[in-house]
Amino acid sequence: MAVAVKTQKLPPIKLIRNVPKEEYYVPGHRTCAGCGPALQYKLVAKAAGPNTIFVGPTGCMYVANASYLCTPYTVPWMHSQITNGGAVASGIEAAYKVLLRKGKREGEMPNIIVMAGDGGTVDIGLQAMSAMMYRGHDVLFICYDNEAYTNTGIQTSPTTPYGANTTFTPPGKEIPEGKTLFPKDPPQLVIGGHPAVKYVATASVAYPVDLINKVRKALNVVGPTFLHIHCPCPKGWKFDEAKTVEVARMAIETGMWNMYEWENGEYRHQFKPKKYKPVSEYLKLQGRFAHLQEAHIAKLQAFVDTKLKTHGIPVEVPAPSPRAH
Amino acid sequence: MSQTVSLPNAGRFFEIRFESIGGLGAHAAGQVLATAAVLKMGLNGAHFSSYGSEKKGSLVRSFVRLGPADRPIRTSAPVEKPNAVVVFHAALLHNPATFAGLYKDATFIYNAPPRSSPEELAALPSTVRTIRVDALGIAVKEQSRPNAVLLGTLCGAFPFLDTGKVLDALSEEFAGKHPEVIASNERAFRRGAAEFETLKNVGRAKGDLPIARAEPAWGYETQPIGGIIPEPGNTIWNDLSASRTGSLPAFNRENCIHCGLCDLVCPDYCLVWEDGEKGGRFERELMGVDYRYCKGCLRCVESCPSSAMLKRAETPGLADRLSVPLFPDLVG
After folding, report:
1. Which of A224, B50, B115, B291 is deepest in the core (most CB within 10 A)?
2. Which residues in chain A are contacts of B27 at CB distance < 8 A?
3. Of A65, A62, A57, A60, nearest to A26 (Cα)?
C-alpha cells in the first residue's frame, strides 16, 4: 500500500530576531579564523533545521571540519568523494522516498543537501551533479564558492576570477596577471542545461537573512535545486580575517558577484546597487590581486560591465593573453 | 664558506624543534635557518615541517637538523630529542608533547609577555636553559611576525648561528615577494636577539625528558564498523583558544542591544545566548563569549552597531576570566 510522501514546508523569516536559535553546526571545528564557508554552513544548517541530511564531498568543509571520527554536524552527515556528491545524494533521496512510500518509515521527507565546494561542483564534481539534476532528484545542491582549492594550498579552480594569484597561477615576468582565464558561471551552467531544475539562486554571507530564506525556498521546491553562495576565504584571498563580510559586500557593490533568484524561467534581482563601484575597490581589499596592473584591471572591469549589461546571458570572454607556453 | 662553524655537540646532529600554530610562521623560520646554515655557514642542514591541511590555527611542528659539512644527513624523521625547542605560542605549553625528548642540557625558548612564567614550565629539566622573549609584543610594535623575533632570539642564544648570515637569509626569503617587510623584519630580528631573558630555577625534572610518540586513540582494532561516527558534534570537546593571534573580542554587556548581528557573522558559534526576562525588552539576550571556541577573527567587533564588542589584547588568563561556558553541562 503506497503512502503519499510528505514534504517539509519551511516558513520564510523576515527579521534577524526570527532566525532560529538552534544550531546544527556546532563549534570546535578546525577551520581558519574568519572562515567564510564555515559561516555559510552554520547559516544553511540553521535554515534547514533538524530533519536534514548533509552530503559533504571532499573540500574545506569536509577536511577542516571532520577529522577522524570527529564532526561538528549534529544532523546526519555523510562524506562522499569530491567527484560524486550528486550521485551519493541521489541514492539517499531515492532510498528514502521508497521507504516512505512503502510505509517502512514515517514522517516527512528529510532535506537532502549536498555541501560542495567550487571544485566539487563545477570542476571535479560536475558530472555527478549534472546527472542528479537530469534525473530530477529532490536534492538541494549548494556550491559554497571560495574561488579556489584552498585546503590543499590555494590552487586555481574554474571559478577563480581572472587575475588572481594562486599556487597554480603565480604572476611573473611572462604572465604578469596571474590567472589569464575567465571563470565559469555555475548558476548559468545549471539553468542552461537542466530542464528539471526549477529554482536556482545566488547568495552571499554578507546578507544572512536573504541566504536563510533562499535555502528554505530551495528546500521547499520538490525537485533538484541549486544555490551558489559567495564565501570569502581570508587565507586564500589574503585579507584580514575580520573583513570577510566587508569583502563579500564589496563584491556585490562592484558587480563582481550578482545576487539573483531564477524561478521557472524568471529572474529576480536582490541588492542591486543603483550605481556600481569600480572593481578596483574590490581588488584592493585582497592580497591575491595586489600584482594587477592598470590594463588588467581594465580588462576585468570590461568583463564585469558586459556581464551586468547582459544579465543572465553568457558573457563572451576576452581571449586569454599572453598565452601560457 | 671558507671558515667552518663548530657545532656545540660533536658527534651528534644539532636538532631544533619549532612548536607552533599555523599562521605564525614556524615553517618559514625553519626554512630560513636551514638555508642560512647550508648556503652561508658551510654546514649540512635539513628542514621539514609537519602540519595538517592548509589552514590557520592548527598545530605545526617545524624541524631543523644541522651537522658538520663532512657528515651527511640521511634522515628526515621528526626531531624527537631536540637540543633546542622554540615555542611560538604560550598556549602550547599546556601540551606535554611540547617538552618531549628535551636533553637535560638543552635550550628552551618560549614566546610570552614579560613576567609570565606558567606553572607548566616545572616539567622542564632543572638543568635546561630557559629563555623567555615577548615575540608577539615586539612583532606587533615592529609590524613584523613572531617568527622573525624568535629566529633572532635563537641566534642570540646560540652564538655559532651567525646573526648576520641568518638575517641575510631572512631578507632574501622576502626580497622577491614582499620587499616592503625586510626592514621591519630586520628590526624585529635584532630586538629578538637582544631582548630575551634567561630564567632561573624554572624546571623541576631531573635528567633528559622521555620522547613522546603519539598513539592514536582509534585504530583498525578499535574503530566502529562501517566508518560510522558514534558521536556527531563531538568537536565541542576541542579547545581552539590557541588559534587566536594576540587579540580577543571583549563583551561589554551594558552597551549591548542584543540585536544578534554578531551571531550572524560568527562562523564558530561561540556566543552564548539565553532567553530574555519575561516581559522584558529582549526576546534573547547575549550573555558573553565562550573563548574555548573563539578563534579571534574579530568579525563580531567589526559588525557590532553599539560598541558592545571591543578588540582587546589577550593577556594570560584573560580569556579564562571572561569566558561564559556555552555547554556547561557537557564541557567542563
Report:
1. A224
2. none
3. A65
Nearest to A161 by CA among A42, A247, A67: A247
Using pLDDT thresholds of 50, 70 and 90, give the confidence band for residue B3: low
Interface test with A, best of B27, B236, B295 (most A CBs within 10 A): B295
pTM attached to this predicted model: 0.84
The parent domain of residue A197 ranges over 16-309
pLDDT tens-digit readout, B11-46: 789 999 999 987 788 999 999 999 999 999 999 999
The burial of B104, by beta-carbon neighbours within 10 Å (0-12 exposed, 13-18 middle, 19 or more buried), is given as middle
| Number of Cβ within a 10 Å radius of residue B260 | 20
Positions in chain A short of pLDDT 70: 1, 310-325
| B10: pLDDT strictly greater than 80 | no
Q: What is the pLDDT of residue B6?
A: 80
Give chain A's domain count.
Answer: 1
Instruction: Return d(Cα A127, Cα A84) in angstroms, integer.
Output: 8
Report chain B's terminal Cα–Cα distance, integer Å: 57
Q: Do B297 and A34 touch (CB under 8 A)?
A: yes
Domain with residue A282: its CATH number is 3.40.50.970
The answer to whether position A316 is within a domain reads: no
Nearest chain B alpha carbon to A212: B264
What are the backbone angles phi and psi of residue A144, rounded to the nearest 5°? -85, 115
Q: What is the residue extent of each domain of chain B?
A: 14-199, 239-322
User: A7-17, pLDDT tens digit by residue?
Assistant: 889 999 988 88
Q: Do A72 and B244 lie within an 8 Å CB cutoff?
A: no
User: Which DSSP letter does residue B71 get?
Assistant: S
- Quote the CA–CA distance of B204 and B123 in Å, as a whole number: 6
**A78 Cα to chain B: minimum distance (Å):** 9
The whole-angstrom separation of Cα A209 and Cα A141 is 19
Are the beta carbons of A121 and A143 closer than 8 angstroms? yes
| More confident position, A53 or B173 | A53
Note whether A243 contacts B302, CB cutoff 8 Å.
yes
Write down the ipTM of this complex.
0.86
User: Which residues of A are less than 8 Å from B232 in CB distance?
Assistant: 71, 73-77
Question: Does residue A1 lie within any of the structural domains?
Answer: no
CATH number of B239-322: 3.30.70.20
Section B173-177 average pLDDT: 82
Tell me which residues of chain B, numbers 296 to 325, contact chain A at a CB-CB cutoff of 8 Å: 296-299, 301-303
pLDDT tens track for B187-224? 999 999 999 999 988 888 898 999 987 777 777 788 88
Q: Report the topology of domain B14-199.
A: Pyruvate-ferredoxin Oxidoreductase; domain 3 (3.40.920)
- Residue A298 resides in a domain: yes
